Amino acid sequence: MHEWALAEAVLSAAIEEAQKQKIKRLTKITIGIGELQQIEQDIFNFALEEIIKSQNDFLKKVKFSIKNEKSTLKCNSCNYIWSFKDVVKKLNEDDAESIHFIPEVAFVHTRCPKCNSLDFEINSGRGVSIISIEGEK
Ligand SMILES: [Zn+2]
Prior knowledge:
Layout: H1 2-20, E1 25-34, H2 41-53, H3 57-60, E2 63-69, E3 72-75, E4 81-83, H4 84-89, H5 93-101, H6 105-109, E5 120-124, E6 128-136
Parallel strand pairs: 1-2
Antiparallel strand pairs: 1-6, 3-4, 3-5
Residues 75, 77-78, 80, 112, 114-115, 117 line the site of zinc ion.
């Protein structure tokens, strides 16, 4: 069910942003989904479409564009940034598969490619975000 909660959160954030920009009717919301965000994209799309059906004119005509965002990791020791794809490439198939379900597995198998530190964090590409909104003013 968390796809529905995410869809609701995205829509309410989009509405808030639209109000700031004095948009009278939203026509397009571009949403970014991070590589490390665990989400069923079909359910998420479905949730978005279902939620706007019950909304007023402000949201009814909105179209969604969903972009997948690459995830990057950042070393806390040397500040080096590398892509999550590179991490997955180096893993064997079983580990790569489990990372798809539990991104935290990446932390067990990963070191900073530059300084070998185990102290790193997810720098980008986790979560769902609004990239842009468009509408009629
Ligand atoms: Zn490092």
